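Write out the bound-state structure for protoporphyrin IX containing FE.
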Amino acid sequence: MTADQLAALSDTLFSSSVGLYSLAVVAFCAQLAFGRRPVRARELVGSGAPVEPGAPVEPGATAASGHPVDPPAVRRWGRVAMLLTALGAVAHTGVLVARGLATDRLPWGNMYEFATAVVLVAVVAFLVLALRSPGLRHLGLFVLAPVVVSLVAIGLFLYVEDGPLVAALRSSWLAVHVTTAILGFGVFFVSGIASILYLVRSRYEARGGDPAGLVARVPDAATLDRVAHRTVVFGFPIWTFAVIAGAIWAESAWGRPWGWDPKETWAFIAWVVYAAYLHARTTAGWRGRPAAWVNVVGLAVMVFNLLYVNMVSTGLHSYGGVN
Amino acid sequence: MSLAAPPREAAAPPPPPARPSALRRLGGFLLRQWRRLTAMRTAIVLLFLLALAAVPGSLLPQRSLSQANVSQYFTDHPTLAPVLDRLYLFDVFGSPWFAAVYLLLFVSLVGCVLPRALEHARALRTPPPPAPRRLSRLPDAAELPTPLPAADALDVVEEELRVRRYRVVRRERGGQAELSAEKGLLKEAGNLLFHLALLALLVALAGGKLWGYEGSILVTEGGRFCNSFQQYDTYSSGALVEGSDLTPVCVGLEDFRAEYEEDLTAASFTADITYGPPGQEGRPTTIGVNDPLRVDGDRVYVTGHGFAPRFTVTLPDGSTFDDVSAPFLPTEQSTMASEGALKLPDLGAGAEDQLALQGFFAPTGVVRDGILTSIDPQPLAPQVAIVAYRGYLGLDSGLPQSVYSLDTAQIERGRLTEVGSANLAVGESMTLPDGTTVTFTGVREFAALQFSHDPGQVWVLVAAIAVLVGLLGMLLLRRERAFARAIAAPADGGSVLGVGVLTRGSGDGAPRFAALTDDLRAALAARAADRAPSDGAAPEPEASPRDR
Ligand code: HEM
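---
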């Protein structure tokens, strides 16, 4: 295939992955919707009992997760949704692979490719979590919906044609730096969503909200808190490494390891906020909701760094390629 | 499970009776403040303050990044800017309040982490504490009945835990055999390493700033500079640097090459330079973007490039200035359209007036409607659009002026007047009204070179690696204590083995505890089978769970 065909293939795959993820969102919705039915049925019977595990199903289905065992329809939709997500992730990977082949370089040389890769990492992180603890599949809608929105926005506002890298970006340290930044960002993305849901869910639990509502189908607050923390624990060293690799590269490209360029400043701010989150998680008075808010602020800083600093401010990191 | 910092407030001294002396009150006050400062919640607040303090540094122009942007801000906001300036908002990262936040943070860090380190050092030498009375209260606990007698059952547990790298102590309490074990003390060491390495990082950065310097200069092909502050276009140096400390070296630029892709994306910039002590030939070497010269703590970087158009100026009296040139600064990187000025302050004996050319340079020029624009960053068809001025340049007026442009004040005052303008391709000339001819003879490339000396850099790298190693140790290792107690079950000569585990650190302990109890069950069963009077059958060797 020629470079042009590969680039066109990449664009087609982009649309395909958005389509597949959208279908996955529908399936995740169905999963949540059907999940409520047995509860309503029981209410009609008048048991009035709090949400209990549904009808008994084959043992071992969700034994370890401690999550209520789902009725078969729910699990069927859940499986379809997971399959669609996985297919979407394959197409999504194809977007970057085809770009990389078309341009003969790592496919994260501009903001379009960078952001696309971050979203892919978020999807893969979700898939890994959901495969390891099936109870977390109920997060699907809340991960995939922002994923679809982000991808559509990326396609509309950040899209750039494939092209070679400018000289300053041709460095193996850059490859290390950007790759790890993408990994860290994608993992923080999932973590932030878990914390947002934690904030919603913990209020619901404190108030004893509607047991038939959507929030009732979300994993419980303790699980969400654990997911948020585990992902930050995973992402924080990666982000630390990304910042260090960036400094090593900046030393050779710009003549100083650290110069408080806006992008560097915001990477530092994000790092400090996530450090604060890790502290908050182990400090009396900060555990729970305050810590979750810190994590949400961390994600906001990451997104701000991607959008504002690349597009509005001027700095050495102006590789955005968006005019 | 993670544990919070020890409850320090509770340890505060009780209020002394009667009227304490002023000294004691002051001591008590300081102690309270110190404890407040070194509490974890203070650390969180300080971390937030640090993040917040960095924000204006990215939203407002900073002197350290671009003096020009700051000046522009002053022009755009004449009333606001001086106020912001008084608050150090254009030098955020060098401001006293930013320093105050991070110094407080680091004082807090030392006060928080060092006591923990001492405690940790003690913990390394003391055996794990006795088992709690009720093992079932632990987050992960189980009871395993076994036909083995109590002591044998604990032997099995001990073996199983030692394989998992626990330190194990056996105790006898109240006639019951029990066991305490501990592992993962490295987690605490990681915590300590991480926090102290952060401190080391700060010290290394500060040291590099104090003893380091950097100078920037534009060098045209064939030109050279020596490492002294007088030579640099701009330089900055740490408080502890003296001019005489500068490494005595000179750098010459032999050749500069910029290569481009088909779509005119810059592919590489390389400069052939010579580097050596003054008065010597210098060693030839090649540097480029992402590929500086590094010698003994000194660095030479290529930070930019551009073109210096060359002119020959012939005065009416026949005297010529051959091959004079000045660097024109690129205003647009994609096409290398550049602007600059060539000043000829001394036109020879008796000449009152001075001459200057100011204008626009296009490496590949196209003239549309009389306007010259550049369409390619490579010097394929160089052209200049220049305006010639004659009069007084104001160079000796005492006010500093840019070498890349004329002093507009002199033009406004009418002391410098325009005497001609033209678009010239290589080889073309223009003649001024007085008969002076200006010929555009070609271009040379120049490189923006930066000479840096940062003795802290290596230590910054070492500290950064230590930060990462400490972080991984702290986050990935788990600190665990395991306890077991075997209670004899008189009925059958066996015992009931209680096991409990306390985990500190991330992750879910339940699956690992399940694996431990599974292995214990298998080991207990295997040991019991060994001890059972055999019916003559050979013991099964593969029964040991250790081989898994
Ligand atoms: C430069 C600022 C600091 C940074 C970036 C930082 C970062 C971190 C990180 C990432 C952790 C890991 C948390 C975890 O295990 O999940 C941690 C743990 C810890 N930090 Fe800091 N820290 C800083 C300052 C401080 C200060 C000022 C204190 C004391 C007041 C402190 C005390 C601790 C303690 C005690 C832990 C262990 C928490 C535990 O194991 O439960 N840190 N720090």
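---
Chain B is about 30% helix and 35% strand.
Confidence is low (pLDDT under 50) at residues 1-12, 534-548 of chain B.
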